[in-house]
Design goal:
Layout lengths: L2 E4 L8 H11 L3 E3 L7 H10 L12 E4 L2 E4 L1 H11 L7 H25 L12 H29 L14 H16 L1 H5 L6 H12 L1 H7 L22
Parallel strand pairs: 1-2
Antiparallel strand pairs: 1-3, 3-4
Helix pairs in contact: 1-3, 1-6, 1-9, 3-4, 4-5, 4-6, 6-8
């Protein structure tokens, strides 16, 4: 099956968690808005189409045959068992999904460091509030989430090379993206945290060296981080 991913064409954003899974799995997919088929217009047209009986709330969403699946954690829950990126047992799959839902919570808080008042306002309209929000994020929320993920790695009964079990799952790929994005957005804070999160940083390194992921990162398919996505680097917020 060739999948179709619907997401904004100029940012990594939430769609990148899905891209990484499909790249690692080696499954064919079309990044619709980047494929020369109408860009964002094609995406919005699909969202507004009356022919879609179960319309997703917002991108990213994945078209798999006749199925349309929205929400990152939901998409990954669908892809994981089909492409050997999730445990075979139900308990393991539920645990993997739980971790991915926690990633979703973390991503929302990362986004709100630069848009704490309203998503519809420019960053420049809420810089004062963003500085205050980011200070609390770096002091309290980032250590809370990364500390939790570090503990999960340390307590994996199959070793600390993976978040769940002894094999790569989609949540390992999500950890890679979190560390990469946070290092871009908050390089100073992350550089000061290497000892605290050594297992997560080692996992990030291992995932980045996997053949398919390394090839993807070196290809034009991997969009660069920029100040339009979730992970944004504003030096004044990395104090």
């Amino acid at each position: 099956m060739k999948y179709q991913l619907f997401y904004w064409p100029t940012i990594q954003g939430r769609g990148e968690f899905v891209r990484l899974a499909m790249e690692e799995a080696g499954c064919p997919y079309e990044d619709v808005a980047r494929a020369g088929k109408g860009g964002m217009g094609a995406l919005m047209k699909y969202l507004e189409s009356r022919s879609v009986a179960r319309p997703p709330f917002a991108p990213p969403f994945l078209k798999a045959g006749r199925q349309v699946i929205g929400q990152v954690a939901n998409i990954l829950q669908f892809l994981g068992p089909r492409h050997e990126l999730a445990p075979k047992d139900e308990t393991g799959r539920i645990w993997t999904h739980e971790l991915q839902l926690t990633v979703t919570d973390f991503v929302a808080e990362i986004h709100d460091t630069h848009h704490p008042v309203a998503s519809g306002l420019y960053y420049e309209d809420q810089k004062k509030e963003a500085r205050r929000r980011s200070a609390d994020f770096l002091d309290n929320r980032l250590p809370k989430f990364l500390g939790y993920f570090e503990r999960v790695l340390s307590r994996n009964p199959r070793g600390d090379r993976h978040m769940v079990g002894a094999r790569l799952t989609y949540v390992d790929l999500s950890m890679f993206q979190l560390i990469a994005g946070l290092t871009y957005a908050f390089p100073r804070a992350m550089a000061n945290s290497t000892r605290q999160y050594r297992r997560l940083l080692a996992l990030h390194g291992r995932v980045g060296e996997r053949p398919r992921i390394a090839a993807y990162l070196a290809s034009p398919r991997r969009l660069a981080f920029n100040n339009q996505g979730i992970f944004r680097h504003y030096p004044e917020l990395d104090a």
